[in-house]
Amino acid sequence: MRRYPVNKLTCLNKHKLGFYMNLAAAAVARPETGDHGLLMKMNERELPRGQAQHKVLDAMYALRDSGKLSVEEKGRLVAWFSRLPHAEEWKLKRLTELATKG
Predict the structure, then answer these.
(1) DSSP characters over 37-70
(2) What is the pTM of this model?
(3) By residue range, what is the domain housing residue 30?
(4) Residue 2 is assigned to a structural domain of this protein
(5) pLDDT given at position 101
(6) Is residue 55 in some structural domain?
(7) Is residue 1 part of a domain?
(8) Spatial separation of the C-alpha atoms in residues 82 and 96, rounded to whole Å
(9) Are 38 and 77 in contact (CB under 8 A)?
(10) pLDDT class for 102, splitting at 50, 70, 90?
(11) Torsion of CA 50, 15, 9, 36, to 10 degrees
(12) How many domains is the chain partitioned into structurally?
């Protein structure tokens, strides 16, 4: 994905888990301004707990670490992610860390 960019909007518009995973992976590989908005447009029913939510969290961290995420955008993204089903302890811990650092 670093060598051949993925069309993130196309992945979002497919509304399928595999494409959402590709979108999140592309945001990790090449974070861009506006990626947070694409992530928040994902259908929550297509993001089961486990690897899918891990990959979205990885994308959130990549956006923060690359400086492509304002404080306001980060707050909205964290709030959106916290509403996903299956609030597991690991997820809440990483969300708290993401929200308070950087």
Answers:
(1) HHHHTS-GGG--TTHHHHHHHHHHHHHHHHT---
(2) 0.89
(3) 8-100
(4) no
(5) 77
(6) yes
(7) no
(8) 10
(9) no
(10) low
(11) -40
(12) 1
